[in-house]
Structure formats: structure tokens, C-alpha cells
Fold:
Amino acid sequence: MHKFLYKLEDISKKVFKQLSGLKEEDFQTALGIEFRKNKIDFMREAGLEVFYDNHPIALHELDFLVLSCMDLKEPIIIETKVSSGIAEEHRQQLRNYLRSAVKNDNAIIKKIKIGLVLNFKKNEVFTESIRPRKKTQDIEIEVWSYEKNKFTKHYSNKKVEEKS
Structure:
């Protein structure tokens, strides 16, 4: 999965550089364009039944369902966000999707055990400014898995900022 994450981070930085300050849907459209250019097989807004007590209660749309490619052996969910940072509500949405995926009838969705939250920072990038722009991390990625009724965080590209 390392090759895929490296490529995703590279693509996401390119998208952010051109679209900072826009809506989540704009980032998703641009990511889809980049996925096609990079031969990453995906489905956008794939339907996922969400379950309560083993009963389907709603149909949600995944931002991206990425199929096996590069060094991905199984399909994964990508949930995109545009926010000041990855929040607990973003993680919870992904957890609900991962928990429900195994209960779906679709053979591809049933295999999903891993998902990630990709957050584009909600800030504007200016190349010319009166003040120098504070160095920030423009995208954040967290990778989570769900197996045996347990969620595990496998990866985060978030750097801990040093206090001055």
C-alpha cells in the first residue's frame, strides 16, 4: 500500500495547489481526473448500505472506492474532506462505512477492510503576499482498518508541529 499512498499524496498535493479554497466536490472531480491519468481504477459515489443490528437502514455514497491497483491487494474506501483538519466526525463516518462494508451483498464492497480519510486543508494559497505564508501541511491522510470488530489506525502523514 506504500506505493499507492505515495502516489495519492503526490496527486493530492497537485490538486490542492490548483484548487485550494474550493468545495469538496471540486477536489473530488479533480482527484478523479488524476486517478484516470495515473491508471488508478476507481468508482466514485459507489453505493454502500449502512447497517444497524444487521439490518440495512440507509444507502450512502462513498466518495471513492479504489479497486486493486499498484500495491493495493484489496479495494479501499477514500473519504475526502475540506476542513481545517481531520476531525473525529470524519473518522466516525469512515468507521461506520468500514463496519457496514462486510455486511453488504456486493462482492467487491464485502472485501473492504481498509479506508482512509483525505483532508484538503481549508485555506487559501497565495504565492504573493505582504506577509510570508506560514508553512502548513496542505493535505492530511489517515489510514484505518476494521477487522475482528476492531479499528486500527495504520498511517497518518500529519506532522506534529514544533512549539516555539
About this structure: Confidence is low (pLDDT under 50) at residues 160-164. The chain has one domain: 2-124.
